[in-house]
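subagent[fold] <- orchestrator: predict structure for attached chain, return tokens only, no commentary.
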Amino acid sequence: MEAAMETQVARLEFREAMARVCAPVNIVTTDGPAGRGGFTATAMCSVSDDPPTLLVCMNERSAQTSMFLANQRFCVNVLTQSHMHLAAKFAGAIRDMAERYNAARWQTMPSGMPALLDAIVSFDCEIGAVNKVGTHNVMFGRVVDIRHGSDEAALLYVGRNYMQPSALGSFGG
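subagent[fold] -> orchestrator:
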């Protein structure tokens, strides 16, 4: 029987490698008894279509962690390339939550979650489970509603920069 590999790559090496991976940019929102919050995330993906489930990763040290967990709901808003300024605001360039929300137009999903009016798509989710992995909480959301919006191209994040899909050909080349 082979011994399990106990080596792992260095944190910085992993971060540098992940910077080369292209990901769509999302704003994840919540609202409820614990308050209204939102953050920019690229760590989002589908998990299953039966039942429809996706996951979002949120830094455990975020001041908003307890709010999201207490509200037990979130909405993932997939951004267009025209949302670059909004992505920066929700990534922390603006600390005041009301100012973040005032920078865009929102509608309320039937659950009460804020959905970006001109997002490509918004996924309204109930938190089904939360797993702590390293520095992050992985929130599994059961999708209870979907709102389709803009047909504009997605805003992407690669090389530690926001990019439009047409600009990708120049990355690393």
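orchestrator: received. Logging for downstream: Residues 84-93 form the longest helix (10 residues). The mean pLDDT is 91.
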